[in-house]
Amino acid sequence: MIPKLRRKFISITACTLFAVLVLVVGSINGIFFFQNTRLLSSHLDGLLAEYGSVPRPPAGLPGEKPGPAAPKEPGQAPEDFHLLPRFEDRLKVRPDGCVLLMASDGSIADIRQDNAGRYSREELEAVADAVLSKGRSEGWQKYYKFRVVAVQTPEGESQTLIGLVNGSSALYAVFNALTVSALIGALCFLLILSVLIVASGRAVRPIAESYAKQKQFVTDAGHELKTPLTVLSADNELARMTFGDSEWFDNIDKQVARMDGLVRSLITLAKMDEGQKPVFTRFSLSDAAFDTARSFEHLSRAKGRELALDISDGIFCLGDESRIRQMISILMDNAVKYCDTEGKISVSLHAGRGIRLQITNDYAKASEFEPEKVFERFYRADKARTEPGSYGLGLSIARSIARQHRGEIRAKALEGCRVRFEVTLPLTRPGDAVSDRR
Question: Is 259 inside a domain boundary?
Fold first, then answer.
């Protein structure tokens, strides 16, 4: 239990830490990309103002929102955006760019560049065709940041301008920043995770010590109770021999037997909680299930219950046969106790990808059945039934046995007032290891 608690603590903390690091790294790189995009947009404003013969970018294509206001000087950020104004004024970074004046037929009428001859006409024509096909006034085309505007010529005609700025350097800087920050984030995550793994041992140590003391107390108390119970049973038998049979002596024997069964159950659970591993051997689960279920046939008939078996042959299991038989016996005892009078109990065992054992019984109060609670210790599904020897620990023991064998046990209410307990176990095929200590 404690190792499982520690693993859950580490996993939850690690997932939270990972999410925070991803959020921080993503936010920083997102802001960095946004700032670079704004700087490129400001350079587009300058290009269009200088080469497009317009004081500020006019309205975009029909249906598009107008772009940001034009800067006072080419290459500078707009008035409403000054991240580090003095630093920007000293740098005046101007990425390469150009403005394309488009003819009415979609061809390039003129190319105005701030670095003449840097771009070939063929390259610019391919970029212009791709930009116009997008139908957007601003965006990215490969590593070009573009803006499309419509202006009025002196003749009163509408002409399309395409502003292009080469953002490869900005994108390269963003990619480098993302790579470096991701590596730093990964290293920080691994470092903190290592510290967390070491520190988690100390964090759960008080809980582990308290839990160990509780388990040890249950085990010690169980062993200490065995001695007075043995003495009571012997004295009661001696008194019976001296004074003859009496209902009082019978009641004492019943209560002693009940207490002895409770103590044994508590000791069994304590040993399982302590993680004591049984010796696993390969055995026939079909024979174990058939023999154990058939042993309840006379009891079920005496109580007016019908028992039906559907057990496939040749199913083998790698585990502790005695504990598997104990688990089946607990489930059968539970089915007989809570089955309706003249009801039916069905036991089926089949194998596919895994082993599936199902024990089903009629139960009139199936609508009140609580599958999530029946495996809790000292829980009773029907508190009005106080069967002798029933303590509410059997199903908890059965679940512990199933988990020891890398399986699981579930309960559910079925239609028609029926309840089913289903055990799933890993399948063992001929040729698997004959014995194994798990």
Answer: no
